[in-house]
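User: Look at the shape:
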Amino acid sequence: MASSVKQRGAAPAPSAPPERGGIAARWAAMPLLARHLLGALAAFAAVVALTSMTDSLTDLRIASIGYYTLAVAGLGLLVGFSGQISLGHGAFMFIGAYTTALLVTNVPMVPLWLNLVITVVASCVAGVLVGAASARLHGPYLAGATLTLAVGLPAVALRFPEVLGGSNGLSFSTRGAPPALAGVIPDTRWQAWAVWLAVLLALVALATISKGRLGRQMRAIRDDESAAALAGIKVGRTKVVAFVISAGCGGLAGGLQAYLLGTATPSSFSVVLSLSLLAALILGGMGSLWGALWGALALVYFEVWGETLADALELESKVSNNLPIVLYGVILIAVVLAWPQGIQGALSRLRRRWQRR
């Protein structure tokens, strides 16, 4: 008896389990919004570092990648999460660009951040109207309704030329770097920073929504509307909310484009833009913010590469003007055939294989 007690007493105390995961475990334990904000901060630091080594033209291209990423990400929330096909996302960019242009032209004392907030609100109101009107439409009927919006809305600028400038659009001057930084930071670099700051804040909101309860409800509706309704999800309201969020992202992207270029013209928001955004979403991969980035890179740089190739081959103007579109289409077909889930889907598959090995 005593020996057994002694043995039990002599047994060493169990040591604490070793810490598992390290940084990865602490990162996973952080609140979702905090993780997204830290990721956005790191991305903004990367943009600042990158633009500090580039020229003005490259700064403009980097800023263009930013607002295209936001537009494609908003469309991805609508199509990839709620399952609503939209061929008219360029119309929301039109609303955002002209709202920004009208505010800068008529109320120049409004600061940029308030201008963009008003632009988002105006785009969300348009999203409520479009979403409520198309909540009961599905498949090709919804696609046709949104395509009509993309075709018809730019014609409003031609119908009211005294307000919207007609075919020439609205031109205005935007503020560059603050006076204290004038001459130190080029205006194009400052504009690229402003664009990416707004884009990253919007992407933080999108990422938080997609990972939260609303994102799960959207995916349930996308998979099976009847089952989602039986589970207590309000299908119609959730669809409208998806349209509103997507419209707000598109409007903000259009407003940032107008701020960057200093102009808003109806020809910039034709149906070709809407189809290009959808193609970029498919190319990059639906359901991922990284996929939106790859699609935006393709939108900006395929055109640049096409023009460079046309100049190198000394092609005629008719051929050189259409070469970027042909190049974009060929690569899109190749990616869809090789990787049906887009570029980000292929990268995710490679990462999973590497982890298994």
Q: What stands out?
A: The two ends are 53 Å apart (CA to CA).
